[in-house]
Amino acid sequence: MINPRPRSIFSLLTLAICLLPVGLLTPAAMAAPAPAATPTMHTGFPLSLNGGLVRFGSVALGDVNGDGVSDIVVGARDGKVHAYTGNGAKLWEYDTGNMAIESKPAITDIDGNGTNEVIVSAGSTFTAQKSGAGVYILRNNGTLRCAFTGTSDFDSNGVADGVYSSPAVADLDGDGQMEIAFGGFDGNVRIMNNNCIGIKTRFVRDTVWSSPAIADINGDGKPEIIIGVDSHIDPGKGTLDGGILHVYDSNLVDIAGFPKQINEVIYSSPAVGDINGDGSLDIIVGTGRCYNNVPGCAPGGRVNPGAGEYINAWDANGNPLPGWPRAIPGQFAFASPALANMDSDPEPEVVINTAEVKDGLSTPPDGWVHVFNGDGSEVAGWPKKPFIPAGATGTVSWSTNASPIVADVNGDGGPEVFLPCNYDIVAWNKNGSQLTRTTIPPQAGQWALNTEYTINGAPAVGDIDGDGKLELVAAGARADQNTGGLYAWDFDGNATANALPWPSFRRSANNNAILIAPGLRTSSDVTFIVQTGRSRTITLEVKDLAGGAISWSASDDQSWLTTSPSAGSTPGTVSIIANASGKSPGTYTGTVTLSSAVNTVNINVQMVVANNVSDVFVPMSRR
């Protein structure tokens, strides 16, 4: 076993950039943004935290105090966890130690007592030799329920290694109790119970930056844990330099088709959703940068130029989706993807930001935001760079390690994409037009979502005051660049589920990072082998992948095709009858269409007519 790679974020090329104050750079030509209602600072904000700045921690929204309204929770570089109401009133703070918190807390009822707890991990790229590493469960009044502080000292620096990974919460083993999954810098993926007792551990022999997603990938009715880990050449274990995507069951054993080895680390955290509309869940994840020409990170200096310059997507069986991995030459995606429907089709698109490396480590990398279709093609109008003002006349487009969020905050029916860039939160509409300021003062109609210091963690969108409208919340620092700060802006969009496809890092309060979009799903291809003069019938399940009720109607385009019933609702079935009466031997094709207000599904039907058909031949459906 070798020592794990250095955990300095400097190898990711962004921190030294993000912490620099803006200067005067060459201005870039910017298209005028579309007119939009200008957001205003929310009452009670900005506010100062009692402690250090929020360096890489992401904002979590959820009901902490039990009043039915979302509160704000975030961790800071001094190890403190802060909880505030949406009107800026402090609920509590808890000090985990002096190791920075760079994750997103989960907010959920961990023990079934009717109130939510806060589950937060402590682990840092800057304070690795400090105390406090582990995962903490805090009651809704801010007192400690329990803590897991049993991580090992994998890098032999004399202190327990931290947990950078954001904890994900779910009932993993079907016992009716919630468990918590996370990875650690000590090379372990763990499951602990709601009393902070480790119940399963898998040593992966390298560092874990990635946060787990939780979803029933293989359709067996049980949730799996999807997480990326780093890897290095180890002939005895069969691993290579790069990273590995695991899909674990509740015993931390990979399911069929996994793991998947790639040639670069996986600092990115996976997202799960059906991005190609085949009715099954897919896994999407970025990479990182270590083996690609970063000798100080790659064990033994074993660099591999060109490694990791792509985005990954696998189906539930571990097969790369058609069009994936998606090449992004000269760019890296440390950040984690968001999923949202950015166009008119029913499937969600992949929204992910990248860093463009120009000349090794010496020039600040530009940031990009990509939006990909399920086939790996780029959505029209994307990718885009963020442009923020740098002094009176310049702009910069610096990259960030934070991940994008997506929400319809202005109620126009199309989602907006939000991403930090230095002091600002940058926003784009679904067509890729930047909505936020590019000059000081902002141009007419531009949103001013600027703070007093750099923002390095993901913001979040939700209704934090119970007025039915959406607010955007970000965490960073005040003007002194040391004191933590919270910022919030009011928007006009209604706080509905449809307006919040991916409103925070890891999407939900339980950090499961799964989006199941409503839509009809059934088999896509049906083949019949029918004897002359006879008919065959096959019955297909029709479902909404999101588990809801969708009304549909059925039609067909051939006289030999019949569907029954002609209309229905999910969950349900539809029977397709192929009638060979009056048909000569040969092959016939047709289409059955299931139409709904959400989407349309076409079922391609083939009928092979023969004079003699053995009884062993039966109708066959294949997806």
Brief descriptors of the model:
623 residues; mainly beta; 6-stranded mixed beta sheet; 5-stranded antiparallel beta sheet; disordered C terminus
Describe the structure.
With 623 residues, the chain is mainly beta. A hairpin with an 8-residue loop joins strand 7 (106-108) and strand 8 (117-122). The longest helix is centred in the N-terminal third of the chain and has 4 residues, at 15-18. The chain is globular and about 85 Å long. It starts with 14 loop residues before the first helix and ends with a strand.
What is this entry, summarized?
With 623 residues, the chain is mostly beta strands. The strands form 11 sheets. Strands 41-39-43-44-37-45 form a 6-stranded mixed β-sheet, with no helix packed on it. Strands 1, 2, 32, 33 and 34 form a 5-stranded antiparallel β-sheet that branches.
